[in-house]
Amino acid sequence: MELFTPWEREEKIALAISGGVDSMVLYHLLDTVYKETYDTLILLHVNHGQRAASTDEAKYIMGMAQRDGRLCETAVLDIPHGEFSQESAREARYDFFDEMMDKHGAAMLLTGHHLDDQYETILHALLTGRHLPGKMGIPARRHMPGYTIVRPMIDAGRREITSYARKHDVAYFEDETNIRTDYTRNYIRHRLMPPIRESRHLQARQLLRVQQDMDDVDDILKDRANAFLAHYEGSIDRQAFNMEKRIVRLYILKVWLAQQGEAPRRRHIDAVLDAIASDIANASFEMGETRIVISYGHVLKKQGKGEKMEMLKVDGDGAYHFNGYTITVRMDADCYPLTVRTKTEGDRMNIPGTGTKKLSRIFIDSKIPADERELLPVVVDKNRQIIALGEIYNIMDSKEKNRRLIIEKEFTNEPEK
Q1: Residue ranges for the binding site?
Q2: Are 175 and 278 part of one and the same domain?
Q3: Each residue of 39-75: b (16+ CB within 10 Å) or e?
Q4: pTM
């Protein structure tokens, strides 16, 4: 099997070795056929602490490294089972990798990603709306602060790798969670990819052409965004901004925020784009430590958190923004005005089918964090009755008239399955 080997003979490299077939085959190749291509090879193993078999797998890898005379650094992730997610595990893994790469002065970190991982990543980006902005797929190399991540097997397919393991009697471990389809990536692997491969009319390799085309589009749109921003300094003209195609506007905001070190998800930027394109006169969106402020004909970028809103008057239909929530109102004229405010001492709400309940008790029962309670919109009608509380309760929720009062949290970061 041919590997991508951008390292030099005198370099120290590290291998992220999980114990699965991919990384174990990569190690076998580095220990045999490619043994003379580097100076030193260090093994880095992470025990996620979520499976009983993980301890035995870690012991095997450490024993294998000792047998072969190689240094093996290990870590056990301290993530409570109920808080574990693919995203949290990845962040913890790379914190460990960063530390070890710096400690040992290794130039490159090798991972076992392969061609099928590439296909799955491209499909995942397309089917979850993450194809733009940004590059698609898994790059063969990626520069990190202080070192480079390299995928030596990125052009090798899973079948070729497993065939190699059988032929050379490579020991490896199966992670039983890999067969579960409640994780998005596993669903793509087990439910979508097999029919694609079986079809005479579909070619998985065409996904690589999609990746290349979209990468070119990404470059073009970045150039267009930079050209637009070159005409503006403190603020952007709202009318000129809205005259651009939506995908260009997306990139303008992406590039603009990147100047402050912010990288919000696409759905967050989409919410801002919708507000800028609407007839809303004023609105403010927090993106990390940066705020995007809509003020009549201008869009501004400000540093620091915005002040908490205490009260907002709603005199008619429209979309309103309040402490990170969007409140969309479509009601009969005699229902106005409404007041949106934060909680006050002694607030009670009449919940249909339950009775009157204190907001403080609702917060406790719904496990709302203390800091979020101070921001949650409380919607009060003209008779001073609370008719909605954030996304928790909404007595105006009705299928008639396409729901007359909708409250949605603008930016959430739920862990991805």
Answers
A1: 18-23
A2: no
A3: eebbbbbbbbbeeeebeebbebbeebbeeeebebbbb
A4: 0.72
